[in-house]
Design goal:
Blueprint: E1 10-14, H1 18-21, E2 22-32, H2 36-43, E3 53-57, E4 60-64, E5 85-88, H3 91-104, E6 107-115, E7 121-130, H4 133-156
Antiparallel strand pairs: 1-6, 2-5, 2-7, 3-4, 4-5, 6-7
Subcellular location: Cytoplasm
Protein name: SsrA-binding protein
Region (Disordered): 133-157
């Protein structure tokens, strides 16, 4: 049963392949600057962040290649689906993320796009390092073994 004190968030888009393709070091919550039609489209649940990433430009962090489709009920004031979107972070957070990307060869990957309890659009951003093919195989073996172990324990018990 859900706890009443738990924050109520509505997940709009999730990057499910990110945990398989990347080794996640750290996560950070960032606000995202959206236009009105983008917010309505995201609430509709059609947006995807699977192929997107974050990059630094002119001392700011931008979300690149996130697909938020056009809002059908909007007319000529609609938005461009794959435009770069500014992420709202504190200066210390931006400097930390830019340092990790430049010095350590990390990548900024969005994990989840959601609305918090106040109705604000937020993006869970991960500082991650790309996995090699053998690392992916190893994590797949661990996952399969966990499933098999669960099956064996259920059959036995």
């Amino acid at each position: 049963m859900a706890n009443k004190n738990e924050p109520k968030i509505t997940v709009a888009a999730e990057n499910r392949k990110a945990r398989f393709n990347y080794a996640i070091e750290d996560t950070i919550e960032a606000g995202i600057a959206l236009t009105g039609t983008e917010v309505k489209s995201v609430r509709g649940g059609k947006s995807t962040i699977a192929e997107s990433y974050a990059d630094s430009r002119d001392g700011e962090i931008w979300l690149i290649n996130a697909n938020i489709p056009e809002y059908l009920q909007a007319n000529r004031f609609n938005h461009e689906p794959k435009r770069p979107r500014k992420l709202l972070l504190h200066r210390k957070q931006i400097n930390k993320l830019m340092g990790a990307v430049e010095r350590e060869g990390m990548t900024l990957i969005p994990l989840k796009l959601y609305f918090n309890e106040r109705g604000r659009a937020k993006l869970l951003l991960a500082v991650a390092k790309g996995k090699k093919l053998h690392d992916k195989r190893e994590s797949e073996k661990k996952r399969d073994w966990g499933r098999e172990k669960g099956r064996l324990l259920r059959a036995r018990g």
